[in-house]
Amino acid sequence: MVDQDASGDANGNADYQWAKFDSEAYFQQYYGEPHPDDDLVTRLAAKVLKNAGPPGAALDVVDVGTGPNLIPFFCALPRARRLTAWENADPNIAWLRQEFERDDMRPQWRHFWDVTREAYGAEWSLPDNPIPALREKAVVTKGSIFDMPARTWDAATMFFCAESITKRQDEFEAACMAFARCVRVGGTLAAAFLARSDGYVVADQSFPALKLSPEAIEDVFKAHARDVRAELIGIVDREIRSGYTGCIFLTGTAR
Ligand SMILES: C[S@@+](CC[C@H](N)C(=O)[O-])C[C@H]1O[C@@H](n2cnc3c(N)ncnc32)[C@H](O)[C@@H]1O
Q: What is the pLDDT of residues 74-110, one digit of tens each?
């Protein structure tokens, strides 16, 4: 797919074939062989959730655009009383529901759960297998990021969604606003964004991405959050997976 229509306007979220998203191909392509960047994002997100306020409280946490990725759930699980996957693509919703029903744990999930446990520290006594607790706490909800209810959750995560679902800057900004406002005032935000990406291909289907800098992301979030920090992390200088040459990690507190 070209990234603009006949009049030259950039394509928006609705212009892409989300119903043809090949969830298992995506999982294998991006998480089949864990990369040190994934470990770093996992550690950073786990530490943010570990320290999310109020201290000691069991939190209602949402992950937006979850796709075929359980890492954000692992990061939030030790603090969560409920975990919501807010996802709009039917194949990803079906994939997630099936994944929670599996009795065996994929080696990749074992790896990322171990990284999460290490980030929380031994004093947390986390279980060897997180899947039963995930199954109990997780809710998979079909919904668009643009329609998220405001002030609903205590903390929110978003891995590669707002910048990876559109070529339109106005939609990116609307998606970030919806994400930032879906938590109560004072709620914790943690998000990862593709750096320097033009888009990505999954099983021959093209999907969009916006090219963003940490400064551009901070500027968008400053209107909706305090203590905003976006940093380029785990920088790789070549495309290690379709559309991925590095990552920007953002934290903030909703206001
Ligand atoms: C690049 S994938 C990221 C998947 C996963 N979070 C990860 O970390 O690998 C983008 C995700 O956004 C989802 N998505 C696309 N449009 C959306 C929308 N309007 N609202 C919510 N999610 C959407 C896709 O189905 C897909 O799961």
A: 999 999 999 999 999 999 999 999 999 998 899 999 9
Q: Which residues line ligand 1 (CB under 6 A)?
A: 13, 18, 21, 30, 65-67, 69, 87-89, 92, 144-146, 159-161, 164-165
| Domain segments of the chain as ranges | 34-254
Structure confidence at residue 235 (pLDDT): 78
CA of 144 from ligand 1 middle (Å) equals: 9
Decide: 22 and 205 in contact? Cβ < 8 Å: yes
Work out which ligand 1 atom sits closest to the CA atom of 207: 1
pTM of the model: 0.97
Fold (topology level) of 34-254: Rossmann fold (3.40.50)
pLDDT at 1: 63
Total count of residues recorded for the chain: 255
Question: What DSSP string describes the chain?
Answer: --SB-TTSPBP-GGGS-GGG--HHHHHHHHHSS--HHHHHHHHHHHHHHHTPSSTT--EEEEEES--S--HHHHHHGGGEEEEEEEE--HHHHHHHHHHHH-SS--HHHHHHHHHHHHHH-GGG---S--HHHHHHHEEEEE--GGGPPSS-EEEEEEES-TTSS-S-HHHHHHHHHHHHHTEEEEEEEEEEEESS--EEEETTEEEE-----HHHHHHHHHTTEEEEEEEEES--SS-SBTTBS-EEEEEEEE-
* Residues 22-48, mean pLDDT to the nearest whole number: 97
* Ligand 1 geometric centre to CA of 150 (Å): 19
Average pLDDT, the chain: 96
